[in-house]
Give the backbone structure.
Amino acid sequence: MSIHDKYALTEELSKGQSKQFGRTFSGVSKVTGDKVLLKFVAKKGQTIGIERIRNERHFDFVEEGLPKILDYFESENECILVRKFQEGIPLDQYWKTIRKNERSATMIKVLEKLAPLLQVLKSKGIIHCDLKPSNILIAITDNDFNVALIDFGLAVQSAMPEQRKLIFPLGFAAPELLLNELAIVDQRTDLFSLGITCWFLFTGELPLTHPNPSVYTNLQLTHPLPDHSSLPRNWYSVLKKMTHKHIFRTAPNLIANHERLASLCEGIEGRYGNMEEILLDLMKFPVKKNWFRF
């Protein structure tokens, strides 16, 4: 049975730059009537996209808020992944609807709702490796919201030997990902990206950017997270610890492998160990009246 025998496409969801790794559509199962999401990646000229979609199909969950893979098709010309449709809008889109004086409380609540999802991943030895606002979905309910994690195309599992040489984009990725040291990544790698996500949402920009790619890479690898006037009071100390990294004495590619690996591990050890530790520190902040009003 072909893809078109089982599913009917309803709307293209991929736009602009998101099409670089393939095209995404919402659809409906002709068998069950359930809403689904379909990813199409053409094999011609899409080495990275093919690697990501083949990887994503292995991360199948039963827990609410994590992807449920329904089908996978691969032909001579393309790969197609079908998963259960996840309702919601990207976190950065939702963030624009939140008043500034409610953003600290909202972010804490997002982190609280992410905590059990990250615990599921930790119990399975899975590191998402691509946490950013567009991969965190917010589904609004009556006076509340649900949170989901999507797009496991770059995810790794600690129980499986990692031989892949993946390309992790600058911006949200931890130094150990940028240097492709997949053997040492753990959930603290995802917490790093989550810290950058918080910084980005509060400030409206990514930290440590530069128009020169080489300089940008060096800043991402070697400089600590800067403070910013748009960060709410007390948040910087937490975000700095979430994104702790070793300050290399020179460019990492000029350092012996064993020293580079030890330095990256030192950076990881300086971070929070889990989301619970982060939330405990955030809860120490002074609470304003109506702070948790939703």
Remarks:
- The longest strand covers residues 35-42.
- The chain has two domains: 3-84, 89-282.
- The longest helix spans residues 103-123.
- DSSP finds ten helices and ten strands in the chain.
